[in-house]
Amino acid sequence: MVRWGGRDELSLRRLAFASLVRLPRRHLALERSLRDGTLKERWPSVMLTELVSCYGAQDAGDVGTSLEVLTLDESHAEANCSPSGRASRFVGTEALAASGHVSARLQGQVVVPNEGSDRLPHGRPLLSASQLESYLECPYKWFSLRRLGLQESDAGFTSMEMGTFAHRVLEVTHRSLLEEARQRLLASRGLDPLCELPLTERMGASRVREGDDAALRHAQQILLDEFELHLRHQFLSRGRRARSQALVAHDATDEGQIEALRQDLLSTLEYESGLFVGFEPRLFEWGFGRDGELVDYAGCYLQGTVDRVDVDAHGQAVVIDYKHRSPGSFVGEYGVFDKGGPNEGEPFALPRRVQSLIYAQVVRRRYPDLRIAGAVYLGSKGAHALAGAVAANLADRVFGSRAPAASALASMCVPEDLSFGQDGRRGLSALLDATEDAIAEKVRELMAGRIEADPVDDAACQYCPVMNCDKRRSS
C-alpha cells in the first residue's frame, strides 16, 4: 500500500471525493464509464460503490435511508444526460428542409471564387471534368465533396488511391517508351535531341504491338522499375498538397492488393498491345486551364488533366482516360448508348459518364488539326475492358483484336450519319457538341445555387460523405 504523509492512496482519494460531494447545492450527478476508449471493460468504481452503500440498511438494526436507483439503457440518451434522470418535455417539431436546400438569400454563395482570387473570372466558375460529372451524379454530392471539402482525413486504400497510383506508373512507362523511340529517330536523322516532332510522326517502338514479345518484356520492365520507385515515394512525399490519395499499405491484406495492382498493370500493357491499331501514344497527363489559361467549356472555365492521347499518321486521335476498375458492368456504365445502340430521332440523353467526352472536346479545340476517333475509358484491373464513344468507321482499329460482344459494341459506336439535336449535327463530333450543350444547362443550375440532393442512380451515392441524406440510395 502506498502511503502519503501517513495516509494511504485510497484514503486520499476518499477525501478528495468527499470534498467534491460537498460542492453541489441541489443536484449531484455521477457517471461511471463501463468501458474505456478502446471498448475494454473498466474496473468498478470504488467511490461510487461506497457512496451507494451509504444508502439503505447496512445491518438488520440500522434504519438507513433508501436511495432510488434508476437505470436507463442507451435508447434513453437524453434522460441519461439529465440531472433529474428524466427526458425533456416534448414541445413540438419542425420539419427539416430537403438535403441541399439553400434559401434564396444564400444561393449566391454556393459558387465562390477559387482560393487566392476575390472574384469569378468573367462571372464563370472554374471547374474540372470530374466536378461536372459529380454535379451530374447529384448536386448535393458535388457541394459536399467540392464546396465543403468533406472527406476522410487518413490515407485510405480504395480504388481512388490505387487509380491515382496506376495513372502515374502507366504515364511514366509510356512516356519512357516514347522518349526512347524519339531519340532513336532523331539520331538516325542526325537531328538535335531537343528537336520537336509533329504529333503525327511515326516512331514505331513508341508503343507495344501485339505479338512483339521482346518489346512487351522491355515495357513491362520499365513499368516494374517505376512501380517500385513510386511505391517508395508514397511515404516520402511532401509539399502543399495533402497526401489524401497516397497508397499506403496498413496490413498484409493491403500488401496483397499492391501485388495484385502490380500484376494488373503488367497485364494492361499486354492488353493494350491489341488495341489502337495504327495509333501511337503522344500526350501523357496533358494539363490544361492552369496558370491563368482560361479554357471555355459549357459556360464555365475548365481545368484538368487528360490521361493520354494516341494519334495516327492521318491526324486522327483517341482520347484515353484510365479507370482502375474490373470489367463487370464497365461497358454498360461507360458506354454512350443502351445495348441496342442509338435510335435516330430520339431526344439526346447525357451518357452516365461524360469525363472522356469533355476531354475529347478540349483536345479537339486545342488541336484543331486532329480529328477525334474515340473518347474512351481503359480499365486497368482484372481482365481489362475498353468502353466509351468510338467513331463507328474506326471501331475495328480502336478495338483491334479486343472487340467486345456485338451488344456492347453497339453501345459505344457512333455512326457518322447519326444526328444529334435539331441543327442536324452528325457523328462523333456532333456527340461532343451535344454533350457540351446539355452540360451547359446543368452549369446554369449550378450558378443559380441549385444543390438539392438528386442522385441519378444508386451508384451516385457511393463515396458521398453525407450519410444521413434523406435521398441516399446506397450505403
> What structural class results from the helix and strand content?
alpha/beta
Overall average residue pLDDT: 87
Largest sheet: 6 strands, mixed
Q: Considering DSSP H and I runs of 4 or more, what fraction of the residues is helical?
A: 25-40%
Contiguous helical run count: 13
The SSE order reads: EEHHHEHHHHHEEEEEHHEEHHEEEH
Radius of gyration: 32 Å
Low-confidence stretches: 57-63, 238-243
Distance between the termini: 54 Å
As laid out across the biggest beta sheet, the strand order is 4-7-8-9-10-11
Quaternary structure: single chain
Number of domains: 2
Number of beta-strand segments: 13
Principal-axes geometry comes out as elongated
What fraction of the residues are assigned to beta strands by DSSP? Answer: 5-15%
Describe the structure.
- The chain has 2 domains: 3-73, no CATH class; 146-461, no CATH class.
- It is built from 13 helices and 13 strands.
- The chain has helices spanning 9-22, 46-53, 77-81, 129-137, 139-147, 159-189, 213-233, 252-272, 330-334, 355-366, 395-399, 406-410, 427-447, and strands at 3-4, 7-8, 126-127, 280-288, 295-297, 300-302, 304-311, 316-323, 371-379, 385-391, 413-414, 419-420, 425-426.
- A 6-stranded mixed beta sheet has the order 4-7-8-9-10-11.
- Helix 4 (129-137) crosses helix 5 (139-147) and helix 6 packs across helix 7 (213-233).
- Residues 57-63 and 238-243 have low confidence and may be disordered.
